[in-house]
Amino acid sequence: MADISAENFDIDIDAVQAQADRKAARKKWLRRLAIVVAVIAIAWLLWYVLIGRNHVSTDNAYVNAEMAQVTPLISGQAIAINVKDTQAVKRGDILVQIDPTNARIAVAQAEAELAEARRRFHQAVATTSALSAQVTARGADIAQAQAQLKAAQAEFGKAQIDLQRRQALAESGAVSGEELTSARNAHTAAESQLAAARASVAQAQSTRTSAQGEFAASDALVRGSSEDTDPAVLAAKAKLEAAQLDLDRTIIRAPVDGVVAKRQVQLGQRVTQGSPIMTIVPLSQVYVDANFKERQLERVRIGMPATVKADIYGGSVTYHGKVAGLSGATGASMALIPAQNATGNWIKVVQRLPVRIELDPKELAANPLRVGLSTEVEIDLTED
Fold this sequence. Notes:
Elements lengths: L1 H49 L4 E10 L3 E3 L5 E6 L6 E2 L4 E5 L2 H70 L6 H46 L8 H18 L2 E3 L4 E4 L8 E2 L6 E4 L5 E7 L11 E6 L7 E9 L25 E8 L1 H6 L7 E7 L4
Antiparallel strand pairs: 1-10, 1-14, 2-9, 3-5, 3-8, 4-7, 5-6, 7-9, 10-13, 11-12, 11-14, 12-13
Helix pairs in contact: 2-3, 2-4
């Protein structure tokens, strides 16, 4: 019995020792875990104090660009298409050519109307000169008629004196009846000539007045104008320029450098003025729209530096840029159907505001981006 008890006692001592060892090991690992947690907490605190609180980031960011929509300025049939989707183009490259037949006819008609307007102006100038000469001639006619009037007045005065003398002598019988009759006839003839001379003067004056009116009307059309400043010529020039512009617009050129997307025109199709036929994406001018939470934007200012990583490169490429601006409205408020926050079952939702990040053109040229790609954006707030 004594040996068995001693053996049991030894077993109990070993179990207690093992349990003590396990407790010591557990305390050791808990101490190590506490140290690790404390180190992590201190590291996170240091990171937040030194870096974290001076940076804001988001992965709700996408590449965007001011895309150029290509729309024809005239209607017509597409007779040539020189580009296709995904093709790179330079500004000024010919994209589409519209049938120019109608435009060329309009230009020819406008050129003819301009030539006719110039001819009418020369005709008006010549007519004005002729009317001016007529006014001068009518002045000479008046002078001649007035001279004839003076002669008729003198003749009438002489005939009147002769008649009066013969009438005075007729009572004494010194003048025959035939001579008196001749004097009366001469007086009547002189009186008629005087009336005719007066009528000639009045007619010449009236003719000159009419010529002066015609001259004034013709002169008003050309006074102060030259062939190039005549209103009719200017109107014809404007019509020709408009027709030439329509002819030039039959060739549709690329407005910017970029890549063709969403081509909607086919050969032989009739395009309509103002209807989009393709889009050009300027890859050298893309930017990033980063949607930050409203609580992250307290210290964000225009001009702050930012870094961008695109998912397409797996984070191996970092773009550097700056804050170009903050949107004037949140995405929710600009949605097609805005949220009705005035309802009774309203729940507050943290809003996001788009922030535009402009990128370095050299970095974009080395690693091009496409519109719509996902990115991660981080803004450095230390420049605040």
